[in-house]
Design a protein that fits this description.
The chain is of the alpha+beta class. It contains 23 helices and 28 strands. The strands form six sheets. Strands 12, 15, 19, 23, 24, 25, 26, 27 and 28 form a nine-stranded mixed sheet that branches.
Length: 797
């Protein structure tokens, strides 16, 4: 006790502003449930596992720790699983994780000799008792994030329900036998609550679904509410009511009265159709979900180094799938595991290692690759009875990598591709002082755009990227005859795709990956291009190639289209991806003998005309959807007036931007030199960088887009003025080699859009494919190579 009293000055009583860690070690994934328990520093309130707490004592000199140990309680092994009613994890009504319960014990430990004192104890100094009580009763910093939730938003009461005017038409709706009033559809039918018309639902992008008669009726009449027939039962809140003006499923508190107007006795009706939310739940068992997750297959669990699962924190599968593949690359393994120990990263970290990206990447790398946390758990999988592993929660890493990012710091589902790009950018910026150690460079490559003017002269633009984003040319499908026969058969049977009983009955377009790559490299026209040779506007031809081939080639398949109502939907297509590809033909050759460069100089008036101005037609369409004029103008400008779909995508992803309501300004009195330097590092000329920053209000991301979308501004400044002066990939710091690549990683997506559903990774390890489905890791028997969203290839040489 005297030893404790002599160190009282190193004990703090936590203030409300203190971040208290007590659930997980800040440099490893040890927890109170680990064999050695967890040690909370009673000065900094950081937590450390048994093997690491001495490092903190050596670094800080803090000797007093609260030791927390959790011991599992015994529970009946035959505890029944609850059937889920929500697409959710860790919430009431969601999937039952069958989590065990634990008893918690405490003691005071004084380093360096690990002298232990019991807690609670009246003999402890009052300051220590108060400090420990505060820590024990506090909500841990690790748990202040939202509880893992994978659930639809709660429906709101429609503003149109309380004022709905129903027409006295004398229509009486029978309890069954419904048919669309304008076609022969007998399923997916909606009853308009104003006039009693029964009409079919929306048509899907591929021709399946309804014939749009219900939504067309709304456009003709402005009658706002409809209820889906077949979802009406005694539980009226479960009925699927849709508001067309609000473009969402809603609650109608007067639904019983509105149904009675058409003679419907809801108490006697039976459920025959799935609601929108239930259809989303049903995706868990449809073909795509089962195929990608390999459900129904006897997957053999695999354990050991490199086979550690990641716990789903709630809509974090996009992060898990991406990081599993990233930490299967030699560059990330070397940087954050092989050549950097946990102790080395901790010693370099600031006072709070939980906020240090290098520390948390090293922690994650060691957690995934050491094998320490990849062992069979004592508890078997509740659904299969197979051995399972608990996995590690990437909570601290997510907090650091998502800091100050409105979307990734939320608990909403995100696009795995967007996260990969965000990760690469953060790692690159963190490696500014040591670029030779930057693992993100292994994904980088140069892109060269050749612009051919009708005069015969050429210009060249160069930039760097880390993904190839590929359009999918459906007209290149190799199974057109099968597709035609399938659609004829389906039309003859009167079946919708949702009615298909077997996945084998569904025929989808099959497009070779080679066709997608060829489409990327093909020529495309540039309208309204100012030719400095012709001194006027003309149409130029642009072709794109790669100036270098990266160590790891990332291919993104553009699988999403916009449906009516600007709802993003997935393109229902298979991509035939070979195990080995050769992109040698895509290498750009640069300025060739006999080619003449376009002359320098673009008139000032042309530059002024390149200032971004919103397309009035795009703005008008967006405004008609209920968005503000200013927001719509910004969306059009920031997508270079590419179209309503592109502007809508930008608008939906930037609604929470802090400057979204700031006035549009094309003038910047002072250009920040650091922003110029950043653009220079991308390979842009200085005067182009300054023009771009001026045109985009100093925003680096917008300035980059401006350069790419304004070739008039960049050709004369970014061209290859001399074939001898052009930098080689080695001079620019980019990796390079041959064009042959081997497929080693696939991120697959299940769901109707990138912002919902589920992501899974398949990785080729030690000659076999392995599935990483959050914390489930097993040998893959049927990797979905044709269903990938993002493909990762490794250069063979």
């Amino acid at each position: 006790m005297e030893l404790l009293r002599s160190n009282l000055s190193r004990v703090q009583i936590p203030e409300p502003t203190h971040r208290i860690y007590k659930h997980e070690c800040c440099i490893s994934f040890d927890t109170p449930r680990s064999e050695g328990g967890l040690f909370v520093d009673m000065n900094s309130f950081l937590a450390f596992g048994k093997d690491y707490v001495s490092w903190n004592y050596e670094k800080t000199g803090n000797p007093v720790y609260l030791h927390i140990k959790q011991t599992r309680k015994s529970i009946p092994e035959d505890r029944p699983l609850k059937k889920p009613t929500l697409l959710a994890i860790g919430v009431d009504g969601g999937f039952d994780n069958n989590e065990p319960e634990y008893e918690e014990s405490y003691s005071i430990v004084i380093l360096p000799d690990f002298v232990s004192l019991p807690f609670p104890s009246v003999e402890l100094p009052e300051k220590v008792r108060i400090a420990v009580d505060t820590v024990v009763n506090a909500v841990g910093a690790e748990r202040k994030e939202q509880v893992a939730a994978w659930t639809a938003e709660k429906k709101l009461i429609s503003e149109h329900a309380l004022t709905l005017q129903q027409i006295k038409s004398g229509i009486v709706i029978p309890p069954s036998g419904w048919k669309c009033s304008k076609c022969d559809k007998t399923e997916n039918l909606w009853l308009n609550l104003t006039d009693g018309m029964i009409l079919c639902g929306r048509k899907n992008w591929d021709g399946t679904g309804g014939n749009n008669h219900a939504v067309e009726h709304y456009k003709e009449t402005a009658y706002p509410l409809a209820v889906k027939l077949g979802t009406i039962t005694a539980d009226l809140e479960a009925a699927d009511v849709y508001s067309y003006p609000e473009d969402d499923s809603v609650l109608d508190p007067l639904l019983a009265e509105h149904l009675a107007h058409f003679g419907i006795d809801f108490s006697s009706m039976q459920k025959t159709e799935m609601t929108t939310a239930e259809r989303e739940l049903d995706q868990n068992t449809n073909f795509d979900w089962n195929r990608i997750q390999e459900s129904g297959k006897e997957l053999v669990p695999v354990f050991g180094p490199g086979y550690t699962g990641l716990v789903n924190l709630g809509n974090s599968c996009y992060l898990a799938a991406t990081m599993q593949i990233v930490f299967s690359t030699h560059s990330f393994i070397s940087r954050y595991f092989s050549h950097q120990s946990l102790k080395m990263a901790f010693e370099m970290a600031p006072a709070d290692p939980t906020l240090d990206l290098n520390m948390q990447l090293t922690k994650l790398g060691h957690g995934l690759l050491s094998g320490k946390y990849s062992m069979p758990a004592t508890q078997k999988d509740a659904t299969t009875g197979d051995p399972r592993q608990e996995g590690i929660p990437p909570r601290m890493f997510k907090n650091v990598i998502a800091a100050s990012h409105a979307e990734f710091s939320s608990m909403r589902q995100q696009d795995a591709l967007d996260f990969f790009l965000h990760l690469v950018g953060k790692v690159e910026r963190a490696s500014n002082t040591t670029p030779d150690l930057d693992p993100s460079r292994s994904f980088k490559f140069g892109i060269e755009e050749k612009i051919l003017c009708p005069s015969g002269k050429v210009g060249y633009n160069k930039r760097e990227d880390c993904i190839l984003s590929l359009n999918i040319p459906l007209h290149e499908a190799t199974n057109k005859d099968e597709l035609e026969a399938f659609h004829k058969q389906k039309a003859g049977k009167g079946l919708e795709e949702n009615d298909m009983r077997s996945s084998d009955e569904i025929v989808r377009p099959r497009v070779p990956l080679e066709a997608c790559l060829a489409n990327f490299a093909s020529s495309e026209p540039i309208e309204d291009y100012y030719s400095s040779a012709l001194k006027g506007m003309t149409t130029a031809i642009k072709t794109t190639g790669l100036t270098s081939f990266p160590d790891y080639l990332v291919l993104h398949m553009r699988k999403f289209v916009m449906e009516e109502g600007w709802v993003p939907k997935k393109l229902d297509v298979y991509i035939d991806v070979p195990d080995v590809i050769d992109i040698s033909h895509m290498r750009s050759k640069g300025l060739q003998p006999g080619e003449e460069l376009l002359p320098d100089g673009v008139p000032e008036e042309v530059m002024e005309s390149a200032q971004p101005v919103a397309n009035e037609e795009i703005v008008a369409q967006l405004v008609s959807m209920g968005f503000s004029q200013l927001h719509c103008q910004k969306a059009a400008i920031n997508t270079s007036n590419a179209g309503v779909e592109e502007a809508m995508n930008w608008l939906l992803s930037h609604m929470d931007d802090p400057d979204i309501d700031a006035p549009i300004s094309h003038q910047t009195s002072d250009i920040d030199q650091s922003s110029v330097d950043t653009l220079l590092s991308f390979g842009f000329a200085e005067d182009v960088a300054r023009k771009a920053l001026k045109a985009s209000g100093g925003d680096i991301e917008k300035a980059t887009d401006w350069v790419f979308n304004n070739p008039n501004a960049s050709v004369s400044d970014m061209d290859v003025s001399s074939s001898n002066s052009a930098q080689t990939p080695a001079q620019s710091g980019l990796p390079d080699g041959g064009g042959k690549y081997k497929l080693f990683g696939i991120v697959s997506h299940m769901g109707t859009s990138v912002h919902c559903g589920h992501y899974v990774a398949h990785i080729l390890k030690e000659g076999r494919w392995v599935i990483f489905n959050d914390d489930k890791v097993g040998i893959s028997t049927d990797p979905p190579k044709d269903m990938g969203y993002v493909y990762f290839f490794q250069r063979l040489d």
